[in-house]
Amino acid sequence: MNIKFRVLPIIALAMALLFAPQARAEQRAATAGVDTSAPTINLDKTSLDNGGDFVISGKAPAGSQVYIELWSAEKTVKSNRFDGKKDEKTGKIPYKFYITKDMPAFYKIVAPVEMAGALDKAKAAGKKWKYSEVLKEIGADAAYTVPAKIQIDNYQATVMASILGSRGTLLPPMDEKASKRESMKLVKARFVSVGNLLSAKVETTADGSYSAKVSIRSGLAPGKYSARVTAVTERIKEGDKETVQKITSEVASFENKIAFPTVYLSTAGTSINIIWPFLLASAVTIFGVLMGAGGGFILNPLLLMFFPLPHTVVAGTVMPTVLFAQGTGIVNYSKIKFINWKLGCGIGCAMLVGGFIGPKLTEMITLDQFKFLFGWVLLILAALMFWQTTPGYLANNKKEQAILKEFKKRAAEAVKAKG
Amino acid sequence: MKVDFWGQEFEANMFVGCIGGFLIAIMSSMFGFGGGPFMVPLMTLGLRLPMYIVVGSSLLAIFFNTAMGTMRHYQFGNFDLILFLVMFPAAILGGYIGPIIAKKLSPVVVKRVACAGLIILGAKLLDLY
Questions:
Q1: Which of A32, A264, B33, B78 has the lowest tally of Cβ within 10 angstroms?
Q2: Which of residues 66-85 of A touch B (CB under 8 A)?
């Protein structure tokens, strides 16, 4: 019996040694449990005047990576993308057209300061950067939530349907994963550059408090904006798959205010001071009159260069402005019987068909392709303009102008005689 | 096709005219401009018509394109009303001031300036500098 009693403490000791690590593990779990309280979020300003800087701060679990997701909560814009790139696996061209109307007019993820290097690398990659890859690289995919939920319509386009000016047949909605993947491409199609979408500004201290100086540029959508913090506490890598432990804060909001003459263009999704486009359009049309041509071909590239407008909106809005001028021109010419209706309507019918197709193509191409093609159009136009200043052309033109004047005079007299 | 204009008769190749007009219409409605500077050379060079017929008739042809293009852009949701309301008065203002200045300037000089401007703008769009 004695022996038994003497053994007991030893067993107890062994037991204690055996269970101790587990107990310690439990203790750690308990402290982690304290840390999993949601991060707090505070904004030092709740109202901005056409953009500005503000500081987002709060406390996240110690040792976690903090990402801030910022988006425009009220204003949404359209974004679309045409997938005409050959699939390397199947060798087929998908001809798919994706479009959403629910894209937030502003979207940005602010990542920890340490990610600045990765962002610089992405910026250096130029236009070919991939949003989804960069998100993954800086770990910000954990904070990517708002655009992932937007409704995306996808169409199966065909070459024939595009020629006829149709978007194609509407396909059934994509599953959650495919929709999220496509949403990233649409985000990039809409916001284009790395700097617009991502920044690395969040500084964290050892105890988990974080702060980030966020700047909202001028010329963005007005109204309510939202901010939410995602704290990534743990990343477990198993081969290619990564499981992320994260907790999100509540949504904080702030307001972006704009005042006249800065006006929000809802289709374009940007606010601009309307005085500048007005002056630009006046100057260009004056110059257009001097040249004896519209001026849209100068106005459009300049608008694209100076203002953050989508090319579809520029093309779609400048075109109607010349409609009126053309209409009055036609009325004036027809009064003096200076229009050959048969000729004008004949070619006009062909142009009607062309005008039906063109706007569809605007929607299908990206801003970069638009600029590239427009660049060549302008160079051809420059050649045409130059040809019109060569001596041979001028001599011929002088003769024709004289005849034109003579005809106009006769026409005016004829009208007068009748009247 | 025979084109009759103030008692004079001209022969116009409508096949060339329609194909050319069609292509110009696609291009101009895609980029959102009128297309006049392309139509006039097409009708004078391509169809060998004298300038005095071309001036009015090309405007009529372009009007078809602009009207259709406007409708289609509107249909696709590319039309921004506020931007339009800013541009439209500017275009009318330009239309009034332009002819006043035009009398004082040589069209050749204007065209040379335009030519240089277009090259700079085109090169910029092509990212050449």
A1: A32
A2: 78
Do A30 and A42 fall into the same domain?
Answer: no
Residues A191 and A338 placed together within one structural domain of the fold: no
DSSP state of A174: P
At position A416, the amino acid (one-letter code) is K
> Is the dihedral angle over the CA atoms A382, A384, A386, A389 positive or is it negative?
negative
- Residues B96, B97, B98, B100: what is their CA dihedral angle, to the nearest 10 degrees? 100
CB contact under 8 A, A299 and B84: no
- Please tell me the predicted confidence (pLDDT) of residue B18: 93
A347 vs B52: CB contact, 8 Å cut-off? no
Tens of pLDDT, residue by residue over A185-209, are 999 999 988 999 999 999 999 898 9
Q: Going along chain B, which residue ranges are E strands?
A: 2-5, 8-11
Interface of A with B in 315-334 (CB under 8 A): 315-327, 329-330, 333-334
* Domain count across chain A: 3
Give which of A307, A321, A330 to mutate to test B binding, by max B Cβ within 10 Å.
A321
User: What's the rounded Cα separation, in Å, for the pair A273 and A280?
Assistant: 12
A389 touches chain B (CB under 8 A): yes
Q: Are residues A23 and A45 in the same domain?
A: no
State in Å, rounded, how far the first CA of chain A is from the last one: 140
Supply the pTM of this predicted model.
Answer: 0.81
> Which amino acid is present at B98?
G
Residues of B in contact with A374 (CB under 8 A): 31, 122, 125
In angstroms, the Cα distances linking B122 to A358, B74, B114 are 20, 27, 12
Residue A258 with chain B: CB contacts under 8 Å:
none
Range B43-67 burial, b when 16+ CB lie within 10 A, else e: bbebbebbbbbbbbbbbbbbbbbbb
B76 touches chain A (CB under 8 A): yes
- The residue count of chain A comes to 419
- Average pLDDT estimate for A390-401: 80
Per-residue pLDDT tens over the stretch B15-73: 999 999 999 999 999 999 888 889 988 988 888 888 778 888 888 999 999 999 999 99
The residue type at B89: P
CB–CB of A110/A212 below 8 Å? Answer: yes
ipTM of the complex: 0.91
Nearest CA in chain B to A383: B115
Q: Please check the confidence at residue A104 and state whether its pLDDT lies above 90.
A: yes
Q: Are residues A210 and A156 in the same domain?
A: yes
Q: Which residue of A has its CA nearest to B128?
A: A375
Per domain, the residue ranges of chain B are 1-79, 80-129
The answer on A306 and A228 residing in a single domain is: no
